[in-house]
User: Fold this.
Amino acid sequence: MNSKSSNVRRRATRGLSLIELLVVIAIAAVLLGIGVPGMQSYVVSSRLAGSANDLFSALNFARSEAVRRQAQVTLAHNGTAGSRDWTSGWTMFVDATGNGSLDVGEEVLRVGAALDAPMTIFGSANFATFIAFDANGRLTNAGGGSFVICHGTALVADGQPRARAVLVNGAGRVRLAIDSNGDHIPETDTGPV
Assistant:
């Protein structure tokens, strides 16, 4: 009986055989092969949603501050003037001169951080350099416009959405665009962004 329990104890402490280890590695590789693409899609979707929600919140805050302060509040991008590229961040300020650019003595309310690559934000032609709300919360940029947030350079990649959009109408209403036709491209009121 003593030698029997000794054999059991030796077998229990010897570890995994090479075949058992290879089977475990093969199973792990299959699970990773299935899970990683799904996880990458989730990460992209999460980054897009987060960036769109951040911009949406900032625009709504600017509008409410314009009404509260009874003064024009402007968000101007920190990139090259007129480039429409908001990826390098933005500055929100009380625009006492109403010229769309931060002048000496104007109060800075918030600063938006630059996005990490490959994320980008581009404004429509009306938002090439800035977006401003007047004391009534209305947009000073004629006609409204949109911001498109992308992961990479394509709106859709591998059948997955890679873009979100934030829309601002002439009345100053800010909203997130939806994909009503299921093509993974968010739409403005007149069609795809």
About this structure: The helical segments are 2-13, 18-69. The longest helix spans residues 18-69. The CA atoms of residues 73 and 94 lie 5 Å apart. The mean pLDDT is 85.
